[in-house]
Amino acid sequence: MCLGIPGRVVERVEGYGDQLVLVDIVGGQSRVNLGMLDEDDQDLKPGEWVLIHMGFVVERCDAAAAEKAMVGLELMGRPRDDQHPRYDEAPESVG
Questions:
Q1: pLDDT digits (tens, 9 = 90+) for 30-69
Q2: Beta bridge partners of 39
Q3: How far apart are the first and last CA of the chain?
Q4: Does residue 13 belong to any structural domain of this protein?
Q5: Domain membership of residue 39 as a residue range
């Protein structure tokens, strides 16, 4: 696994040969490219977790792996605010 920022897929968006998804990253949303994933892995659905590096989805993951990635990032810098939930907690809704 590489160093990646965890994000949760919100929806597929148009652009770059249909290889863009909108993801939620700790409450903010960003468009990222999934062209680095194998074609078999590009069928992402809302609510699925991914790891992002330099604007590209580099890996699909589950909520536990997303939380582990965020904890690793927190060890290198500022921790999350209390207003942002842990990734392994149940979401209120996506989309």
A1: 999 999 999 998 999 999 999 999 999 999 999 999 999 8
A2: none
A3: 27
A4: yes
A5: 5-76
| 90 is a domain residue | no
Sole residue written with tokens 């979401």 = 91
Q: Which letter does DSSP use for residue 42 in this model?
A: -
Q: Which parts of 1-95 fold into alpha helices (H)?
A: 63-76
**d(Cα 83, Cα 1) in Å, to the nearest integer?**
28
Asked whether residue 58 is domain-assigned, the answer is yes
pTM: 0.76
Distance CA 35, CA 13 (A): 13
Which residues contact residue 24 at a Cβ distance below 8 angstroms, ignoring those fewer than 6 apart?
7, 8, 10, 94
For the chain, how many structural domains are there in total? 1
CATH number at residue 44: 2.30.30.140
Helix (H) or strand (E) holding 63: helix 63-76
Instruction: Tell me the pairing of strands 56-61 and 49-53.
Output: antiparallel
Residue 53 in domain: yes
